[in-house]
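Standup notes
- DV: blocked on the single-chain target, sequence here:
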Amino acid sequence: MEHILKNGIDIILNNKKNTPRTSVCFYFKIDKPEKYSGTYGLFAKLLLQGTKTKDSKTLAQELENECIDVSIKTKQDYLKVSFLFLNEDFKRAMDYAQDILLNSTFDEFEKELYKVKGELKSDLDNPRILATDTFVRNVFSGHYYSNTATKTLEEIDNIKKEDMFEIHKQILNSKKVISIAGDINDPQEIAQYFADNFDFMKSNETESQIQKIDELNDENAKIIKISKNDLNQAQLFQGWIVPNMQSELYPKISLMNNILGASGLSSRLFVELRDKQGLAYTVRSSYETLSKSALFSFYIATEPKNIKKSLDGFMFELKKIADNPPSQEEIQGGKENIIGRLEYFSQTNSQLASMEGYNYLMGLGLNYSEKFIEEINKTNANDVCEAARYILGKKSLICALAPEKFLDF
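- DV (later): unblocked, structure below
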């Protein structure tokens, strides 16, 4: 992998010889909270709905005919626009990239707004999505990261077409990176091409207006109960705000998370709460990292009568791993699972371009995956205990969705 800075443009190149398709990811850093919840997501959807030269139907048809795959993703911290195409179509694909990134008209604003509202309402009919939404919204209450689907539905009618143009200016003035993976004959020639044709991708280091959040405050550390009487399963979350990828605790929490509940059938939560106690339809732990925070959580779908027993099970397993170092077999299995997943999700050029661009944009540097694997391999059983003890010392939030008569716990 190579980093080239050309004409102020950051370019990451992964040279994958003898691969037929090239992936190019354009990353834009989000450093400003949304004016209204859902604004960034709506902007991302509208980028592919027509430009000054092509309406949405023409654009979609031409991309399909040219076999150029375009996807747009927005998360709390970034916007990513990805292109995948045959190697020989590089310049043709980049012509479309220029047009989409510079000339989107947002003319289908009202139509897309209506569609988004319908999609969000449909999603929230799913009990698990509703519980997840409520959990995240309350964990990050008062912070930009609390902008979930329910909050978007409350605020989406305040969003105006003019807001799309403001966001467009904002992202073009943000920290940016172009990440490429493919069969690259001459990296300098590629870099010069972007320097000559993508002046708008010059990266700007802007001061983030998104505040860091290190822990739950006393108001947010509570139990949220949602009554829904037509459910056969209770949806239950318990979560803690923890350090993110920039912290020395990151590999330790990652390995602890894998052993506890992120490794599927072999994880402790699955074996103890599902297999042995029969509490769960689904049970897991997760560790989601963001630019300004991170969230470690437990989740279970269980019979409503088992809510208290499940919460006790969460804490029992967390205390158990804090007090008793995992076996060497568990440690080795957890490391192999983490490294295996990382390698599995970095096989294709699309995956490589996406991953390396994200790591660079988040300030993790080049070859971060290799550095992370080194840190995981150095992590030991006592480090896993340290991670669990750290979490036990923090405040948590619990969110339960169940029939009313089962919420007295």
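- Follow-up: Residues 226 and 401 are 5 Å apart (CA to CA).
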